[in-house]
Design goal:
262 residues; 2 domains; mainly alpha; Serine Threonine Protein Phosphatase 5, Tetratricopeptide repeat; Photosynthetic Reaction Center, subunit C, domain 2; 56% helix; 0% strand
Length: 262
Amino acid sequence: MGRENRSPVVSGFGRRVVVVGAAALVLSVPRPGSAQIPDEFTNLKVPPEDIEQRDLLNVMRGFSIGLDVRCTYCHVGEEGQPLSTYDFASDEKPEKRKAREMMRMVNHINETVLTALPDRSEPNVSVTCATCHAGRPRPSSLEEEMMWAYEDGGVEALTRRYRELRERYYGLGTLNFGSAPLDNVAQMLGGPPRQDLEAALAVTDLNLEYHPDSGTTLTLRGQALAGLGRTDEAIRSLERALELNPRNRFAERLLQQLRGGG
């Protein structure tokens, strides 16, 4: 099939080679492993069949950087062994089959969705693997990670998981370690259907370790304490929230109620 007759997905991939390859230029210098990779490829489903070795390697390296994984994440082979021993054509691993669908999705977004935007800003922004994955194989949000940990092992598991993720990813732009995600988690735990106020309180305390001047977190803490009947502590937390933000109307109303004026 000639290039001019390719489907939009395939031609879209061809343009993506430029974008992803640009992110991987630092890796495009010859390496010993390059000689072990064939010049022609089999079982290519999304890239054009006649893609050059250098272009395909740059795309694969872009995936590796975007997800912080190695070749064996998708391909059949043993880590540390020569690439000539890998079965790159095999579809055995589900990760490879998923990767194809992700590639098609990215192509569709860049070549169809974004190009159809009215008054699209210049320079154009393109989607890559790193846009969502940001250096992790699974592009989950911090809220999702926290709720999964909570469902698996309660608030202790949640706290442990948060510290693990913060230790590994803080400062890398991979996850949002500001106060807002844990505020969201506290609300999810304290509200229906869970209504686990003790867990919500623990999450606000965890959040305040790293963000002691978060007025929203202090307000949520006061709300949890009030729900647990710990009125004096709730009042102190709400007072502190109002010191930080005197225009916090929710904290003001709740404080008034706790003092008997609401």
